[in-house]
Amino acid sequence: MLDSTTACTPPGLNWKSGESFARHTTMRVGGPIRFWAEPASLDDLASTLREVQKRGLPLQVLGAGSNVVAPQSGFEGVVLHLGAAFDWARVEGSHLVTGGATFLPKLTKITLGHRLGNFEWTCGVPGSAGGSIWGNAGARGFNGHDFESRDCAADLHSLLAFDRSGHRVELQRKDIEFSYRKSSLGELIVVEARFALKPLSEAQARRHTEAKNELLARRRETQPVNVPSAGCIWKNPNREACEATGCRGTGELLEKLRLKGLSFGGARISEVHGNFIVSDGSGSGDDVRVLASEVERQVLQKTGVHLEREVRFWEF
Question: CA torsion 121→124→130→134, rounded to 10°?
């Protein structure tokens, strides 16, 4: 528990109590949060980070709340969330500049409205710009001719971040290492990013818009978009594992092993897509954790494949 020197909200900063992870995550599970901090400006963010460090409080950064499962025990520290002050975007020539809190599907609409391509993959990804760069989010996109996998690293030009001490850090794309759903950003908090995109003619913009609509339609058909989930739970196995199991990805592998519908408490493997765990509203973060572990155990036992989690399961 927090002692008397850390138990009150600091004057002049937008901290509040009474929030929970269930309210702020797409999985709709998770316990109480001691302090919820939503800075109103860059200066406010810097002050918040310095205050957290001064008090010696534990800190977690939460973006749009997707790709994370929080425990029911909650968090006796500060959850930092970039809110409305960081939800903005503008176009400068062929560059998209965005705040760290801007929702990715919003950026799809903005870029196509300015006849810029290569960002179609973001149309159905329920993440914020900052968090998506940090985890190098990606999805099926469109290159003007074919549908292909694409991610944040593909078009990132530069970014502005803050370290945990409240200092500004400016980075170019070449300064950051990216791999599948990973980056070298570590504890940095991305507050602004610039992407270099592809200028389109009017005819190309229409084709890219049609492709975006196709991507959204396919997503609605093949993923459980109307129920609480955290997104794809596991990364796809490597090529050798896919060839050995005869499956193109984790969802297909779990379907082949007849694990769709497997449940624990209020959590179950989606019948629509095997790589999603969904909640019926009565479950907890602990239910999701137990179910994920059981799936991993069965997959390893039956195929020898070690599933690697894409969603972050927080433990405090």
Answer: -70
Are 129 and 112 in contact, with CB atoms under 8 Å apart?
no
Residue 215 carries which side chain, given as an amino acid letter?
L
The list of the chain residues with pLDDT below 70 reads: 1-9, 11-12
- Residue 285's closest CA among 59, 17, 21? 21
Contacts of 63 by beta carbon, 8 Å cutoff, 6+ apart: 81, 82, 100, 101, 127, 128, 130, 131, 132, 134
DSSP-based three-state secondary structure for 55 = helix
CATH label, 87-221, candidates 3.40.350.10, 3.30.465.10, 3.50.50.60, 1.10.10.10: 3.30.465.10
CATH number 3.20.20.140 given to 226-309:
no
What pLDDT score was predicted for residue 316?
87
- For residue 38 the two structure tokens come to 């939503």
How much is the pTM?
0.91
